[in-house]
Fold:
Amino acid sequence: MSRRERIHSGWRSAPIAIFGIALLILLGGVAVIVINESTYSRARVEQTQGLADVLAATTSAAVDFDDRAAAQQAVDAFRVNNQIRLIGVFGRDGKAVAGYVRDGSPIASTIAAMPPPPENDFRIESPIVQAGQHIGTVYLDIDRESASRRASRYLILLGLFVLAALVVASLGLAQAQLRRANRELASRAEALAQANTLLEEQIEERAKAEDQLRQSQKMQALGQLTGGIAHDFNNQLTVIQGSADMLARAELPDAKRIRFAQAIVQAATNAASLTSQLLAFARRQPLKPERLDLNDLIREMDDLLDRTMGERVKIVLDLHPLACRVEVDRTQLQSAILNIASNARDAMRGKDGDGGGTLTIRTSDLGVSDGKRMVAMEIEDTGAGMNVDTMERIFEPFFTTKSMGQGTGLGLSQVYGFASQSGGEVRVRSEPGKGTALTLVLPCIDAAVTPHALAAEPGAALPPAKILVVEDNEDVGAFAETLLSELGHQVTRAATGEQALDLTRANEFDIVLSDVVMPGMGGLKLAEALAKEQPGLPVVLATGYSQEIVEGGSGGRPVILKPYRLATLSEALAQAMRRAT
Amino acid sequence: MNAGGAILRAVVGVAMLCLSMAAFAQPTDTAVKAAFLPRFARYVSWPPAAMPRGSDPFVLCVVGADPFGAALDEAARSQLIDGRRVIVRRMSSLAGVESCQIAFLGSSQFVGQMGSRPVLTVTDSASTTQRGIIHFVVAGGRVRFFIDQGKAAQRGLTISSRLLALAAGVNQ
Structure:
C-alpha cells in the first residue's frame, strides 16, 4: 500500500518534470538560434563592410573629381543586391555625390541630413581614402537578415514549439495511461485480496469439514471395532453362560459336567486370545523380547505349519543364512507367522474349498538402510490375490473378506501391531489371481542368541506357602484367593499397594502376587518399595494390560498375563520362589 | 532717411548676395580644372627617381601662361599626397621642369619639347591643340579629360585604372 502511494506521489511531480523538459528544449532551441543569429550577423557585417570598402575604392576617383555620373554608375552596380536598403556616397565636404534608396526615395543631400537606419538594418560606414587622404565616405544600410532567413527562423521556432507541445502531449498521455494502469492495478490488488480472504474462509470451512469427516470416520471405525468385539465376545459368552447353566443342574452326570467345564475353559481361552490380539494391534501387548535366529524359528515351526496348512498346500522353505539375529517376542512372532499362513491357506482354498497351492517362506538380508540393518521374512502364496481396495484395508481390525464365523478380522492386525512394536514393518504385494506376498521386515540385533528354554523348568509343585495377593478388583482377588487356597496355600489379600506394604511390615510372607494397575500405589511401585524393605521377598506381577510395563518393562520381575490359568499361576509362583532362594 | 530708401537698399543687398551665392555654387571651368590638377597626383605613380626626396612636397608646375591664378594655390593647399604637401611653381620656360612631378603646359610648343621626362604633363583644349598625357576638355557642360596612357608609359608613369575610368577617352 505504502509503495503504491510512493509511486503515486512520484508521478504527481511528473507534470513539472515534463514541462521542465519541454522548457529546456525550447530554451535550448532559442539559444541555438540566438548563437546562430549572432554568428550570422557578424558574418553579415563583415561581408557588408567588404561591400562598402569595395564601393569606397571604386568611387574614390569619381568622388575626388566630383564625377557624379561615374559614382552613380558604381553605386548602381550594387543595386542587384536586394538586401541593400540604402547606399550613400558623400564627398569630403559631406555632400552627397551619388546614392540609392531601395524604396526609390532620393538620397539625403548631406551626411547630416541622413536619417538613422531602421531598427532592423545595419549601417556600415567606409571612408574613401586615396593616397592617404580622406576624400569622402560611403554609407551602406543593409537588412539585418533576408526575408527567407527570417521566415526559416520563425519556422524553426514554430517547429520547436510544436516539438515541445508534442513532448508535453505525449508525456502527458503516457502519464495519464500510467495513472489509469495504476488505478486498475490497485483495484485488481483489492480484488485479489478479497479473493484471498474468500479462499482462506473456504480453506477454514474445508478444514472444519475434514475434521468432522475424520471424526465420523473415527466413530465408524470405533463402531466396527466395538461391533466386532461384541460379536466375538458374545459367541464366547454364550458358550460360557450355557455351560454354566448346564453345570448348575443337580442331576448332571460327571462326564457331562467335565465337558461343560472344558467348554467354559475353551471359550474363555478364545476370548483371551481375542483380547490379546486386540492389544497386539493396539501395540499395547506386553512383549517379552528375546534374541533369536529367524531361520531357526521357522524351521521349528515346520511341523506346526504343515498341520495348519493341510495336505493340499505344499510348503517350501527358502531360507538364506542371515548375518544377524532379531530381538522379538517369540510367541507373537509365531502368531504372526501363523496368522499370515492361515490367511494364505484360505486364499488358496478356492470357492469349492478343495484348492491347493504352494506357500513359500523366504528369508533374506536387506543390508543396512538408514543406519539400521534389516532382515526380511517373506511369506508368499499362490492364492487368489487381492485388489487394491482390499489391500488398503487388510490391517484394519475386524476387516475380513471371510464369511461370518470364518475369521475374526484380527489376524493381520496382530501382524501389523507386532511388526510396528518390534521396530519393523509389514509390506504387502498382491494382485488379483497372482497370489499375495507379505513381508515382515525386522531390525537386526548384533548379539548372541538367547537360548530358548522350551518348557521352562519341570513344573515342580509349589510347596504350601504364605502368599499376599494384592488386587484392587474384588472378583479377581477372590478368584485368586480361592484358586491358591485350593492348592493348599495360606492367602492374605490386600486391596491397595499401601495396605500390602503395611501387611508385609506386620506379617511374614513367602511371596507377593500383585496386580500392576491399581489406584494409588501400583504394582511396580510396591515391588520397588518391597525390594528396599524386604529384599528377600519375591514379587510376581500380574497384568491384563499395562502402559508402564510396555514402556519401561518390569525391572526383571516375572510377569503373568491376565487372564491366567491355574497352571500358569502356580508355575510362575514356583519359579519366583526358586529364584529367590 | 525715409522708409522707401531703406527697403530699396535691402532689396539690392539681397540681390547681390544671391548673385555671389550663385557664383559660389557654380564654379567656373577654370576653377574646376585648378581643383583637379593637384588631385591627379593621387592616381599616378612615378618612377622612384622622379619622386620628391625625403618628405619634400610634390611640385606642381605651371609652365607659360597661368589661367588659374590663386584658385590653383588654394586647391593645392588642401591636398596631401601620401602625406606630402603640394606646392605650385610657376615658370616661363621648361628650364628646371625636371623637378616637377606634374606640369601644366600653357602652350603647345612646350608639349613637343618635353621629351621623355617622367613628368605628368597636363594640357587644356582651351589653350593648346597639342595634348599632354592628360588633356582637359569641356563636354556637356562638364570638365572632362582625355588620358594618353601610351605616352605615360613611355615616360615611366603608371596611371590608376580608377582615373582611367573617369576619362572621356583613353589613348593606349
Notes: Confidence is low (pLDDT under 50) at residues 447-459 of chain A. The longest helix of chain A spans residues 147-247. Residues 314 and 358 of chain A are 5 Å apart (CA to CA).
